[in-house]
Amino acid sequence: NAGVTQTPKFRVLKTGQSMTLLCAQDMNHEYMYWYRQDPGMGLRLIHYSVGEGTTAKGEVPDGYNVSRLKKQNFLLGLESAAPSQTSVYFCASSYVASGRDEQYFGPGTRLTVT
Amino acid sequence: KNEVEQSPQNLTAQEGEFITINCSYSVGISALHWLQQHPGGGIVSLFMLSSGKKKHGRLIATINIQEKHSSLHITASHPRDSAVYICAARPHTSGTYKYIFGTGTRLKVLA
């Protein structure tokens, strides 16, 4: 099993450009998450999904959109990138049941917006 | 004030030392996780706790729900333990599985 994969691993964008980050998991998890990690701050939730076709806003959703058309994939879109979106982005997935609640993280995508 | 706070922020230890990292939280929670982030950036889950104590190899995690406090201990520390350790609390919020993350404790173990 590949677990959680993210593409791309690195990207440099100019202000105003758009891009999509892809997250894929092969563990049949219902829940998927997108986080950003910035120096001196904890991981912050951007958007999450509790199942195919559903998405919800997290703590810092502005400037981002998401889609979950297939259970195994969770896409994060930046429509018009801004320097404030320079960050490391992590995707995670989880299987939640009684007594089991563990998040599996992807390797991260380092995004720089100039 | 963050709802999840960790201490210390940075920690340097000599190989073999016993290490303790602390996590305090201010919200009611249903679970607390300890995560490890390696220098390359990858994040792995070490423990999930809802009560008591768990042990895995040289790692021990404890939680005191009444005091809203958890600790991660590393016995006989080794340079390969060098990483950022993150605690994440899952609040009592019906129907969601969102977490609040601490800012992490950067551990460096010297040979």
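qc> The mean pLDDT of chain A is 93.
qc> done
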